[in-house]
Design brief:
Layout lengths: L5 E5 L10 E6 L2 E7 L6 H4 L15 E3 L5 H4 L2 H6 L6 E3 L1 H28 L13 H9 L1 E3 L6 E3 L3 E7 L7 E7 L2 E5 L22 E3 L18 H12 L4 E4 L5 H14 L8 E4 L1 H10 L22 E3 L3 H6 L8 E4 L6 H10 L13 H4 L6
Parallel strand pairs: 3-4, 4-5, 5-6, 10-11, 12-15, 13-14, 13-15
Antiparallel strand pairs: 1-2, 2-3, 7-8, 8-9, 9-10
Length: 374
């Protein structure tokens, strides 16, 4: 590392694509970039419960590249462990991370409650990793930075955000500390994102920490009309009186699906059927994408309201959601799986054929990474 006195420690995001946490340290000043949850396989998720590998109260700054849980979802736990300093991010990341952390905390509390009722936890009583109150505490520590500004933070830490084009607010983060300059790419978007302007080029840095989640594959060049496979499934299903269920996991996935559906209906490539969004988190995120102050991150050809769907409805209560298991007319349902108990979700999947699965991760990435899992 430059100067020999600044150290970089990987506390996550190695050997797995989740749990991103990077620690920069120079003469007692410590800054963390990203604070993600370990997700997916149980052996990784268990790491969220390991005793902390650093003293949270001794950190000077935390910076976030973007809102996704594998980069932000451990923040309430860090705050619970005693971190009471600033958490820096862009305005878009702030708005979306608030939604993501509240949602995550509610799920943590619900899972602990389910474990208590089902008596299947090793803890007695089962505890959530963190609570909604912890998430609110973390949110109070959020501070915003503008893109492309060189900000000087307390303790001699310099930071600059560059648009990464991955999700609204996403940034590559350049950190200067003790003569070292490290660029953390964060997750990077493709040059042609359907909603976001293409990522910008960050300033050069001597050290680059690069995400490589899709490092093992080349995205195929689109052939024929865009999204024709999806359009075909919807046309055939609705044509025989059926409904299509689309699970949407990540906070931004629903916006992309709605945009595509909106375009397909506008171009009369699929019939105009009601679209139901069965995810409180997705609806809140849609409102964030529509905020005028975040508009500069969106492509010029995206309409301010994002989507024109004449029959876009929200299922906000459990009863409304349950009713969607047996819709009275052909429709499209976008559902966040975590918000339904597993047995109910399976029942739902059994009711619907086909279920369209939106991709969100590359399973083989780790196998391709040097030193990764074999
Ligand atoms: Zn991401």
């Amino acid at each position: 590392m430059s100067g020999g006195h600044t150290t970089l420690t990987f506390l996550g995001g190695t050997e797995t694509v989740t749990g991103s946490k990077f620690l920069l340290e120079h003469e007692g000043t410590r800054a963390m970039v990203d604070c993600g949850l370990f997700q997916r396989e149980r052996r990784w998720r268990r790491q969220n419960w390991e005793p902390p590998s650093l003293e949270a109260a001794g950190l000077a700054h935390v910076m976030l590249t973007h809102c996704h849980l594998d980069h932000s979802g451990y923040l309430p736990a860090l705050v619970r462990q005693g971190y009471d300093g600033p958490i820096w991010m862009s305005a878009g990341t702030q708005a979306l991370t608030e939604i993501v952390l509240r949602d995550s905390a509610q799920l943590q509390e619900r899972d602990a409650e389910d474990a208590r009722k089902g008596e299947y936890s090793r803890h007695d009583p089962p505890l959530p990793l963190y609570t909604v109150a912890d998430a609110e505490e973390a949110i109070r520590q959020f501070r915003t930075l503008r893109f492309d500004d060189d900000a000087e933070l307390a303790g001699g830490v310099g930071v600059r955000l560059t648009r990464a084009g991955h999700v609204l607010g996403s940034a590559s983060v350049t950190v200067r500390l003790g003569g070292a300059e490290v660029l953390f790419s964060g997750d990077l978007g493709r040059p042609s994102h359907p909603l976001l302007r293409a990522r910008a080029v960050p300033p050069a840095a001597a050290t680059v920490v690069m995400e490589s989640t899709y490092g093992d594959r080349t995205h195929p060049a689109p052939e024929g009309e865009p999204h024709e496979a999806l359009a075909d499934v919807i046309r055939r299903t609705v044509g025989r009186g059926g409904s299509v269920l689309i699970p949407a996991f990540a906070v931004d996935r629903t916006e992309l699906v709605l945009l595509v559906l909106s375009d397909l209906m506008r171009d009369r490539r699929i019939p105009e059927v009601p679209v139901f969004v069965d995810s409180p988190m997705a609806l809140a995120a849609l409102d964030v994408y529509r905020r005028p102050e975040l508009r500069p991150e969106l492509r010029d050809d995206v309409a301010p309201e994002l989507v024109h769907l004449s029959h876009l409805e929200a299922a906000r209560t459990s009863e409304e959601s349950m009713r969607l298991n047996n819709p009275r007319m052909p429709c499209i349902i976008i559902r966040h799986p975590a918000w339904r108990p597993a047995d109910e979700w399976c029942t739902t999947c059994g009711t619907f054929s086909p279920t369209v699965v939106t991709p969100w991760s590359s399973r083989d990435t780790r196998r391709q990474a040097p030193g990764g899992e074999r």
